[in-house]
Amino acid sequence: MKIQLLQRKIPVGISQCAMGDPVRYNGGHKHSKVCTGLLAQCFEYVPLCPEVAIGMGVPRKPIHLLVEKASAPVDAVRVVGVEDAKVDVTEPLRDYADSVVPELRKVRGYIFMQNSPSCGLYGVRRYLDNGHGIDSEGVGIFARRLQQQFPHLPMEEVGRLNNSELRENFLTRVFTYDAWFRYVEEPEGNNAEGKEGADEGEAAKPQSLIARVIEFYTAHKYLLLAHHQEKTRALGRLLADAKTMSDDELVFEVRGRIMDILSRPATRKDRTNALMHSAGHLSEFLDKREKAELKDLIEEYRLGHKPLSAVLTLLRHFLPRSPHSFIHSQVLLAAEPAELGLCDFH
Ligand code: SF4
Question: Is the distance from the beta carbon of residue 174 to the nearest atom of ligand 1 less than 6 Å?
Answer without folding.
Answer: no
